[in-house]
Design a protein that fits this description.
The complex is a heterodimer of chains A (305) and B (76). With 305 residues, chain A is an alpha+beta fold. Helices cover 29% and strands 30% of the residues of chain A. Chain A has three domains: 56 residues, Winged helix-like DNA-binding domain superfamily/Winged helix DNA-binding domain (Arc Repressor Mutant, subunit A, Orthogonal Bundle), CATH 1.10.10.10; 193 residues, Bira Bifunctional Protein, Domain 2 (BirA Bifunctional Protein, domain 2), CATH 3.30.930.10; 42 residues, SH3 type barrels (Roll). In chain A, the strands form three sheets. Chain A has a seven-stranded mixed sheet with strand order 3-4-5-9-8-7-6, with helices on both faces. Chain A starts with a helix and ends with a strand. Chain B is built from no helices and eight strands. Chain B is elongated and about 35 Å long. In chain B, the strands form two sheets. Chain B has a four-stranded antiparallel sheet, with no helix packed on it. A four-stranded antiparallel sheet of chain B has the order 5-4-2-7, with no helix packed on it. In chain B, 0% of the residues lie in helices and 53% in strands. The chains are: A alpha+beta (305), B mainly beta (76). The interface between A and B is medium-sized, with 26 and 18 residues. Strand 8 of chain A pairs parallel with strand 5 of chain B.
Chain lengths: 305, 76
């Protein structure tokens, strides 16, 4: 009901009476007032008087009701341990495709191999649950597609000089703006769900913990609405999702990557490999040409250059 | 009889989440593989008891490599 109240108030510059809202929405004036009180407590600036209500300002919080077309599939919580944990739980319980778990802060934000992703307030942290009927080896394409669409969004909508470093970190002038981590479950030959978690430094100051990081606000030079950023990204992501399982996903990634053509170092727990990043294969594996001319196919490890 | 839970994707063993002697149900996660920053659950296809853990963290795996050895009922 909050979604409907906000839609009506948001479309009018005039005050709207409780009686009119009650009549339009088919609930009592007392119920309208209760919803308005909750919205005010959540940070909405609603001017109230005996003549009715007027929406003055909305908080930059990605509440589910801020996304009328996705309302049922957005799950917002102010602070969570990790959006990945909630997403996994919901996915195992059968939540629908493109369910999104979003938080303002995470207590235990995770990076790859149990590293920490610092998740202070001011950032945007969310996990998408994807149910795509696909063999598991295609997950690289989906991840590349996601990184490419997010990079495209940051460049075109926010003017950030963002590029993707293999496989999917998004950097601006070599400093980390976004990180991604995915989880996948497979049954038989097909994927049951692929959860993609994304952390974007928006207004937070990640450099306090990670010197080599940067915020979108700093990159774009202006205030950024987190709820708008999420909305724009999800629309773009869904719009071309058909491409995500094809090699077009890899081509899109190539367009925005900063890795290919460089001399790189790939570090794993057991080994270090150096060479020229010659290309990526059809599923996203990095092809490294060593000085000897030997080509290595890399599917894990930290990439440095 | 014995059954082996094997790697379903190539990658690094991120962790094994069961120990020797643990009871495991069909569909239960027993290990996690990391490949291109995706964590892939490796689930048991059987009800059984963990006889031994074959893989350890950081092991490099190919599809089909053994990760966990189970003892299962003959009809399991």
């Amino acid at each position: 009901m909050k979604k409907e109240i906000l839609q009506i108030l948001g479309q009018s510059s005039e005050r709207i009476s409780g009686e009119d809202l009650s009549s339009i929405l088919g609930i009592s004036r007392v119920s309208i007032w209760k919803h308005i009180k909750i919205l005010i407590a959540k940070g909405y600036d609603v001017d109230t008087s005996s003549k009715g209500y007027r929406l003055m300002a909305s908080p930059d919080t990605p509440f589910a009701w801020e996304y009328p077309d996705r309302c049922e599939k957005i799950h917002y919580t102010e602070t969570v341990d990790s959006t990945m944990d909630i997403a996994r739980d919901l996915a195992r319980k059968g939540c629908p495709h493109l369910t999104v778990i979003v938080a303002s802060a995470q207590r235990k934000g995770r990076g790859r191999l149990d590293r920490t992703w610092y998740s202070d307030k001011g950032g945007l942290y969310f996990t998408m649950v994807l149910r795509l009927s696909m063999p598991p080896q295609y997950m690289g394409r989906i991840n590349f597609y996601t990184a490419a669409i997010l990079t495209q969004t940051l460049r075109e909508e926010y003017g950030a000089d963002a590029k993707v470093k293999w496989p999917n970190d998004i950097l601006v002038e070599g400093r980390k703006l976004c990180g991604m981590l995915s989880e996948m479950e497979v049954e038989g030959e097909m994927t049951t769900f692929l959860n993609i978690g994304i952390g974007i430094n928006v207004h937070n100051d990640p450099a306090r913990y990670e010197p080599n990081s940067v915020s979108l606000r700093r990159c774009s030079g202006r205030k950024v609405s987190k709820k708008e950023l999420l909305s724009i990204f999800l629309d773009r992501f869904e719009d071309k999702l058909d491409l995500a399982m094809s090699e077009e996903a890899i081509n899109l990634w190539r367009k925005y990557n900063s890795t290919l053509g460089r001399y790189v170092r790939i570090v794993t727990h057991n080994d270090t490999l150096e060479g020229y990043a010659e290309g990526v294969d059809e599923n996203g594996a990095l092809l490294i040409k060593e000085d000897s001319g030997k080509i290595d196919k890399v599917i894990y490890g930290d990439c440095f250059y | 009889m014995e059954k082996i839970v094997t790697a379903i994707m190539p990658g690094l063993c991120a962790r094994v989440v069961v120990s020797e002697g643990d009871k495991v149900a069909k569909g239960q996660e027993v290990a996690v593989i990391n490949c291109m920053k995706t964590e892939i659950s490796v689930n048991s296809e059987y009800d059984g008891i963990v006889k031994s853990v074959v893989s350890k963290e950081w092991d490099e795996l190919q599809v089909g490599d053994p990760m966990v050895l189970l003892t299962v009922d003959n009809n399991g």
